[in-house]
Amino acid sequence: MILVSACLIGLKCRYDGTNALCRELMDKLKNEKFLPVCPEQLGGLSTPRPPVVIVGGDGFDVLKLKARVVNEKGQDVTFNFLKGAKKTLEMAETFGVTHCYLKEKSPSCGVNLIYTDQGLTSGVGVTTALLLKNGYKVIGIQPGETDLENLQCVMR
Length: 156
Ligand code: SF4
Fold this sequence. Notes:
By secondary structure, the protein is α/β, with parallel strands linked by helices. The protein contains five helices and nine strands. The two termini are 20 Å apart.
């Protein structure tokens, strides 16, 4: 079973109510079993919702409670991000996930790039950090920029 960021397969779950459909990924998944998840919705956030940044580090730092997730209204939504990450991990365990395709540049799902209070920065999102900590292989997908023949895999 492959875990996939739900926005990548066309679900309109992004903060602004849009999707991030990646047709190349859909082609790649057409004969696979896959599990779409949106950690931010699983964490109880609505769609649409205010955009957020990670303040003070990346997803690993949020897991250690050394960084926070804050939306553009100044509201601290760290709890929602931690809850969504935990629920995503539970689903990965329940469904026997082998690897994950996750949406780049997201404070939840980013694999190589995330938005922080410093702008677009190297680092992982909160859900990605928890999946990596638990031994899952994660692959970052950025629609329109991704060469699916040469996917960059991050294994830690
Ligand atoms: S990047 Fe992740 S958290 Fe953001 S909308 Fe897509 S699935 Fe949801």
